[in-house]
Amino acid sequence: MQRRRQRLLLVLLAASVALLLLGLMAGGDGLSVGTFAALLQGEDGALIIGQIRAPRSLGAWLTGGLLGLAGALAQGLFRNPLADPFLLGSASGASLAVVAVLAAGTVLGKGAAWHAAGLLAQVGLVVAAFAGALGGVLLTLLLARGAQHSLRLLLAGVVVGVVLSAAGDLLTLGAPEALRGRQVFMLGSTAFLGWQSCALLAAGLALSLPLAHRLSRTLDALVLGEDSARSLGLALAPLRLSLVGLLAAATGLAVSQAGLVAFVGLAAPHLVRRYAPGPHGHMLLGSTLAGAVLLLAADVAARTLVAPQELPVGVLTALFGGAYLLWLLQRQVDA
Amino acid sequence: MTALLVATDLHVSLGARSVLHGLNLSLEPGWTAIVGPNGAGKSTLLRALAGLLPARRGQVLLKGRALAAWSARERGRTIAWLAQQGQASGELNVRELVELGRLPHLGLLGTPTAVDRAAVDEAMRQTECSDWAERRLQQLSGGERQRCLLARALAVQAPLILLDEPTTHLDPPHQIAVVRLLQRLAARHTVVSVLHDLPLALQADRLVLMRQGRVVATGAHDDAALHSALCEVFEQAIRIVRVEGRMVALPRLG
């Protein structure tokens, strides 16, 4: 079993390297070695590859990693394979905040404050999405009176999700100009990822993965039930809160950079569980890599499938992720 | 003999409902079985003794110190606990599950040492689940899983072992094996188990009989006064006889 787990991690690492290379090659002409070689020798090669394709590919890999990690944390915390990173209100919180900034930008843009509108568009959306995601989770925690009761937390997350989505809809009605921006955010996109995003995402992953890994035995103990976990000397209340905090931070960071990319956080832990199940320490690491590979693969596909046009990456992850989960379900039914 | 665990005037509630009403109990080394009809408060008592439920009034003393004053990890090293209908889902294999018993010693950050590995090996050997070390819990039957959960509790190597229905899901040979194991453990530990199965409970050193949140009687397994209290609490539906030198509870069918 140990060997199988190591093999899966190695395969995912190898797939990451291969996809990162493909990510450098994928462009408006699709995937072509000849075009790539010509681009390398051309004048624009350094700019296109170094400043556009490389950060985009690495950014997609890091965003997917954060979503995979968040998915494994959510499924471990709620002991539910259907849990995903957006369960605790982060998606609707981020979406509402983005709409609010877009609407504010529209209002400012109509007046004389063009400068403020431009600033809001550049910095405001990223910060708003991150703050909105954290705000949504915080509201869920307040409603659930902490992270102690899984069911209460889940229900509070559903309520916050519905209410904040409705608030976003209401705001969009008042400022229809924000609708398009909201749609782009909801579909998810890796097209705007630059080196700055990569630095932020890498720092987030470098902090959250080791921390989550250190706390992973809490999730292992929780498979025995709350009483048994507590009997093992674990202070469950602060530990669960820390794990929810990590889940919220990882999700918020990913969402702030790439919007609401669907299914990666849900499908990545399933993929690991299917091929090499194990304790949560392994699940977190494996899901991070699986999420990274899934999103990067979707990003490369989004760039090349209908080149020179581009598909929204969130649509592809939803299609592929959904199809994969259905296939998995079918296999389980057959078994 | 010094009691490891003492409950004095223990009142415990589940939500708004009062379940234990001023219970006094002293648990000495050896094996004590807690018995009583459904809803008597046996599992609630065990959870309160493990520090998993707070006392509304009264207190539990572990080694002479109030249970609430113990740190969670210190308590985890001193009390091993097996839940009723113990659950175990997820992706762990049997050995990884049993290794969780070493958490109170290792904490979240510790790495298992040779001592921890030996404790896990021993617990798995005692419960005869070494052969499934690599199997996932989902691949085991209810009885096999119960033995693994028991191994997890034993791997703590705590001086006080609290077990809620440890023989659930086990077939008769394995029920007897668990009883023999508890008898062996009782030579060096304080073992307290809730048991519905009276014939098995009568193999313990002492019995605590409960009804409606109170202790009705305590006594050695061959105590005649205890036997008469058992027959009364169970509405004369049983009779207790000596068979081949052991006390046995039989249902009165006729």
Structure commentary:
The complex is a heterodimer of chains A (335) and B (254). Helices cover 80% and strands 0% of the residues of chain A. Chain A has a single domain, classed as ABC transporter involved in vitamin B12 uptake, BtuC (Orthogonal Bundle), CATH 1.10.3470. Chain A has 335 residues and is mostly helical. In chain B, strand 11 and strand 12 form a beta hairpin. In chain B, the strands form 3 sheets. A 6-stranded mixed sheet of chain B has the order 6-7-8-3-9-10, sandwiched between helices. Chain B has a 4-stranded antiparallel sheet with strand order 2-1-4-5, with helices on one face. In chain B, strands 11-12 form a two-stranded antiparallel ribbon. The radius of gyration of chain B is 18 Å and the shape is globular. Chain B has a single domain, classed as 3-Layer(aba) Sandwich (Rossmann fold). Chain B has 254 residues and is an alpha/beta fold. At the A-B interface, helix 9 and helix 10 of A face helix 2 and strand 6 of B.
What do the pLDDT scores of chain A average to? 89
Q: Which sheet architecture does the biggest sheet of chain A show?
A: none
Give me the secondary-structure category of chain B.
alpha/beta
* CATH architecture descriptor text of chain B: 3-Layer(aba) Sandwich
Task: Count up the domains of chain A.
Answer: 1
- The oligomeric state of the chains shown is heterodimer
Instruction: Assign a percent range to the helix content of chain A.
Output: over 70%
- CATH architecture call of chain A: Orthogonal Bundle
Number of helices of chain A: 14
CATH topology label of chain A: ABC transporter involved in vitamin B12 uptake, BtuC
Query: Largest interface by residue count?
Result: A-B, 24 and 38 residues
Summarize the structure.
The complex is a heterodimer of chains A (335) and B (254). Helices cover 80% and strands 0% of the residues of chain A.
